[in-house]
Specification:
Beta-Lactamase; 20% strand; eight-stranded mixed β-barrel; D-Maltodextrin-Binding Protein, domain 2; 930 residues
Length: 930
Amino acid sequence: MAFRFHVIAKLCTAAALLLAAMPGMALEKITLQLKHVHQFQFAGYYAAVEQGYYKEAGLEVQIREGSDGNEPERDVIAGKAEYGVGSSSLLLARLAGKPVVVLGVVFQHSPYALAMRQSGGDPDIRRLIGKRVMIGSLTDELGNADELLAYLIKEGIPPNKFQRVEHSFNPDDLISGKVDAMAVYTTNEPDTFDRLGFPYDIYSPRAVGIDFYGDNLFTSEQEIANHPARVAAFRAASMRGWQWAMSHHEETADLILNKYSRRSDRQHLLYEARQMVPLVQPVLVEIGYMNPDRWHHIADVYAGLHMLPKNANFDGFMYQLDSTRPSLVWLYRVLGVAALLLVLGAAVHFSQLARERKRALEIIRKGEQRFRTMFEASPLGIALIDSISYEYRDINARYQEILGRSQHELRALRWLEVGHPDDVVQIKAQMALLITQQISSFKALSRLFRPDGSVAWIDVSVNAIDTESGGHLHHLCMIEDVTAKKQSEQLIWQQANFDTLTHLPNRRMFLDRLAHDMLKSQRDKLRIAILFIDLDHFKEVNDTLGHQQGDVLLVDAARRISACVRKSDTVARLGGDEFTVILNELNESDNVERIAQDILDSLLQPFELGAEQAFVSASIGITLYPDDALDIDSLLKHADQAMYAAKGAGRNRYSYFTPTLQVAALNRMRLTNDLRGALKGEQFELYFQPIVHLESGAIHKAEALIRWNHPQRGVVSPLEFIPLAEASGLIIDIGAWVFRESARWVQHWRQQFYADFQVSLNQSPLEFQREGESYECWVSHLQALALPGQSLVVEITEGLLLDASNTVSTRLLQLRDAGIQVALDDFGTGYSSLSYLKKFDIDYLKIDRSFTRNLAPDSSDMALSEAIIVMAHKLDLKVIAEGVETPEQRDLLAAAGCDYGQGYLFAKPMPATQFDTFLRAAAAASVEQR
């Protein structure tokens, strides 16, 4: 051993001396001029510096920020910088006689686009006509403005149809309305818009076939002529840097923050990185590759703008990669010497190992008696086997026990005769190597058949045995029974990767298969579709028929979904009533829609659950890889958003993911986050709308309506934020605040205007059904204010009465005992029946505005309203009509006997202080009339 290490040490020393003898190379200093400030847009160049790629190429590179897009071209032509980063307008510079040469393309597609505020309708670029637009600098000769101007001309919007103003590069100008549209980088400004919740549409020239390159690395003809090797080395190191940066987003973002710029935070840098992936296309296209046909396409666009002659010749504009290469002969020679030294070292190493192995075998032969003792007593099954005939020469007791056969039976058999055919093939292949002395031992996991037909799993270890000269080759086979361990592992694996109910892959297996399919998709250039399936109304089945029947339905649903897809596709159950499908190797998207519709149709069929039948449908969200996202988390998030869009559109349908869904989801998330601080920030305000006694015109009631004064968005409608409050659980705290504010104002108005004044407040079903003390705290608060329960009316929906649980009944009893009255809101639009009105203590019915809106003599709405009024009075209930907007509606309702009216005819909802003034004026007018 000492001799071997000594020899290897001497060889390594010789190699080190050879490498040290190489002449040192001084680093050449060069400058790279960027076209903008430091950001992820130039990440590859920072990576080439920090990873040492430039240094390995013999270069010391200074990277300078740019103040405008044309600075790189001016500085490279003037000799102030050897290299620059420019746009596709470099083509114009070349044909204007400037000796610029493009070394490589970084952005295969330009990120330049137009942004406009969303209008509420479908996106329409023609909204730009007559508006103020920021597209590039008005003083620059060249720039990205060219592709946007060509895009607008192709859309029928020449520059004389809009007002072009100087570009400030400040997104606030678009958000505040200072301009109506602005040119943006899709890798940059949209992140700012999303964070501020600004609704916007993006218009890209690619939509009409104008596909420019983005950032291009370029130099001058003089640099190529004077320093060809340096140009090749700089280009190669830069492209290495880009490859590293595009595969190490987080490390590159940290590098920029630590050494280059903190203008943007880490979140924005990572946003840039994600948006750059489909533009740079690092997986599909070698970074730096440029296609002459694409440059001809760009030249044709410029010709259409009359900026170039048609069929212009731009020979020499594109760098010829193979024109020059630095000599690497010396490197190859050094590597050859080093490889030779390593081979010699390995040879010495293995030679020593062979000698040691022979000595070890000699010791084993001399210790035969000790071996025999260990052989018989070993906990492992051991057999000595003829390597040619496969006959057993010696067998210990444990080997016989594992195989379930006596020594006599085994002597009559050949080795491997009781093995599983699939495993025997592999072991024989290894034995061929062992016999030819290519290997001295091997291990395998194998199956064998016992006499009773059961299968045992064994770990097999085979070692060659030296024999006397001329004797048959033998090998030692040692086996260990691992059947119990294998079965346990199989069970654990099954439970870890498959759903125990449906036996479909679970979330873990689904994610593993999706990752595998995504890699295959990258290689084969085929799409993948992910379907996110949620069963509609499944909770009702569980609640009415029980969880056991619900499980039966889930198993049948899994079977139906699986029957709609190919065997190569994956159907998984993520949990509950959520299923996912991976449709791989897609050639046409039509197949996705057909499969989705087949799944919907299959799930619509009735489910037989014992003596009962159940009917459910499904909502399916669809997202495509790589079109919609490049990572698993984003794909699942997009599919989930599309599924909720399908639910929102009415269920029993499928919906594709669109960027609009992502923006909406971000807006909901940010609005929910803002909602959490709204109470503490005192951003809520109560509005009140009067409820008028139709016979006398007196105002002794009002409905409390909540409004949210958002610091950035202004007044947010309850229709927008109440669902978010219910989903997040914030509705409980908000409802408590509404109660306290309503109590405070009704106390004031009872003291100032009318002793029996009442305020109605709406209750969410989640508030009404909450667990805990419920209305006890309300009663305590009213008592502290010396208010009777009759000062408040709680408005609930008809749907609550359908819930026959004890919770609903208990809540209504608590309200009755406290003297708080109950109004049934939007009556006539739900599913309640007269039996519920009789069963529960209801004081008021509110006729929905859908009936009031179309009131006319002898109309069906008039007949329904009269019927509701007569029925309510028979049950000793008062009636309030909502949505009264005309004197005619008021008069018809009054003539029908309706007790109260509420609507814009009397007054719109108004802030509490304004309503206070309104009551004061109404009281004064009442006094004058008396």
